[in-house]
Amino acid sequence: MKNEDITHKIIGCAMKVHSTLGNGFQERIYQRALAIEMNKQGLFFDREMNMYIYYEGENVGLRRVDFFVENKIMVELKAVIQLQDAHLAQAMNYCQCYNLPFGLLINFGARSLEYKRVYNLNHPENEAYKKNHPLKQRNE
Fold first, then answer.
1. Long-range contacts of range 23-29, CB-CB < 8 Å, 24 or more positions apart?
2. What domain count does the chain have?
């Protein structure tokens, strides 16, 4: 299954969960419901997978990613009224630390489901995206 197909399936599962439960629950409720829905859709995943953070080859900590789907895509969940830059930075950092080309940030806390693809700008697969990224253009 291609990455795009997987992300579409994940987003579809999240939409079903959000349309069924609505907003206002804690993140762990959405996490459990999303696990049920992804199982029904035949997606393979690890939930709350421990992933180590390294700095110059040294282990400096441990984070738990909400979902790691099909051994390819990191999915970080939130249940907040509005996503903040810090949430995006967290998801982008996960992609960089785990050397993934991209991941998903999904917010169940708003009236409408919010989701964003987050990119690891240091990953070789994202060279074209990096050239057109607004932050890259401002920093040059």
1. 23/79, 23/108, 23/109, 23/110, 23/111, 24/109, 25/79, 25/108, 26/79, 27/77, 27/78, 27/79, 27/108, 29/79
2. 1
